[in-house]
Structure formats: structure tokens, C-alpha cells
């Protein structure tokens, strides 16, 4: 004979999906679990049911993020999918208490849903006001080695926590998308160039190594972050200098395959490209390659940038990429860069027309929304 709870569960499942949302905040954990578990598919197919009564279901879901692990998992999945809606995005991204909860949960060493939290934050970064993270502080989690700034904690999570090194349940790859969208704001770009007091390290130098990571999500997000940071033209000297950030090897290496070059060209290339193994393969994702080529084009905005790229023989590498990767968008990006590098310089010319850089910025593909 079914128990009272089992009978209630059967009654719940007999309801129409648009009525299930009324049970998200039920006092019984079993009923809450049943409701959110069965509502996950409708977060993509019928998202409007979560917007009734001034987003009341969304408000309930925000509470469930800190509920029992299985309930929290489904609640987070639903919120990730719903955050592509402008009204839901605004509600989530402007709720300071909810953001505080997300940041606390994400930085916990044993948090089972850290990757889902990172996905949700990646979507919330579409909200311009999230750049205020630069001012947010919370107690530094033990074992992370960070300070009390939330942005530094997330940066250290991304770097030190890769592949389960901090939290066995998480790799934090989707934080790269979070950083990429935040880097569209000038004040956040400055953060990436500022040496931090607690570890005396420039944040951009922490993430540059991941342009050749095994995770395509991490590579793609880091590539977009570097590209957006490169729009800060006054920082180009630091980006290009070998004794400073030295970003060029990290942009060029993913573009390199196992091709051979003329000896003069090879000896002039950056050292990282001179001793490549015979099985070296360029990044298999053409969108990542395109992002790196566009970043190189942004760095040709100043004459010193153009002259440096000619000196280290960027052109032969771009030529081979153009020839060997069958992707029209990438080839167009290669053509734009080659046109800049191949042209003659006027004696008093200092910079590339702003329209060229604006074109790249408008073509940015960072408008991705993560769905689960």
C-alpha cells in the first residue's frame, strides 16, 4: 500500500507541467526534488512557465541553490537555462544576496556543483553590472592562497583548481567564459594588467598558459579573454614585451602545426616556435584559431606591434594556417592580418584606422549562453 508521500508524488506527476512550478518551494524535500527534477526539460522548451507571478518560481529556485545536493543540482540547471532570458538574467544578476551566495558556494573546497555554479556565472556576466565584482569581497577560503577580493578568488580557482586540483568535483573551465565577458569592460581590462599585492602576479599572466589546454571550453574562454583585454591599446607595450606579459608565444603556438619553414624565417620566429616536435598539431577548433588571429590583428594597431610581428615572421605562420584550415571565417581573419603586415608604412604613420579594430569587436562571438 503506497505511503502518503508516494501518493502525493503520484498526484504531483499527474499535474500539467505548468502547475509543477507551484511545488518548487514545497516544505517537503521529496516533493521539491520531484518538482525540480521533472521541470528541468521545460527550462529550455517552456521557459515562460517560470516567469509567472513576477518570477516567483525563479525566486524559489534561487533559494534551492543552497538546498540538498540533488535539489540544488536541478535548481542550478534550470537557472542556467533560464538565464538566457533578459528578465530572468536581470533578476539574477542584480540580486546581491544571491550573488553573495553563489560566490560563497563556488569557492567552497567540497562544493559538489562548482562547475554548474561557474556555468551560471558565465551567463550572468552578460549583465553589464556584474563588472562590480571588482569591488566585492568575502573571506578568503582556506587552501586557495588568495586574498579577500572575490575576483582574485575566482582567478585562483580557475588557475589552481584546474582538473580537480582544488575541488575534486570541479575543473572551473567555464570561469574562462565569465572572464571573457567581464573583459569587455575597460575597468576589468585594467584588472588583468594590475600586479596584485597578495601574490605579486599580474592576472593575465596566470591564464595565458591555458591557450594550449586540453579543454576546448578553457581554451576558447581564455582566447576570448585575451582578445577582449587586447582592446586596451595603452597596454600593448606590456602585452608584447618579452620581459613583461609577453603574450605573443601564447597566441602563436596554437596556430602552429608541424610545417617546416625557411631557415631564415624559422630562426627569426619566437623561440617557442623553433623547436616544435614533429607531431605538433595546431588547435583543432577553427573558432579558437580565428580568435587568436583577431587578437594579433588588434595588436597591429600600433606601429611597434606591426614591426615586431614582421620581425618575428608571423606572416609565414598565418600563411600556413590559411592554407591548411578549411574555414572561411578563419581565412578572412588571416587575410585581414596579412593585409596589415604586408603593406608599406608611411613615415609618420602611428596606428591602424580605428574602423578595423571596431570591425573585429563587432564580430566578437562571445554572446554565447551556456545551456545544460
TrEMBL record:
InterPro entries: ARM-like, ARM-type_fold, Hgh1, Protein_HGH1_C, Protein_HGH1_N. Residues 107-289 form the Protein HGH1 N-terminal domain. Residues 360-372 have a biased composition (Acidic residues). Residues 295-348 form the Protein HGH1 C-terminal domain. Residues 344-372 are annotated as: Disordered. Belongs to the HGH1 family. This is Protein HGH1 homolog. It comes from Sporothrix epigloea. The gene is HGH1.
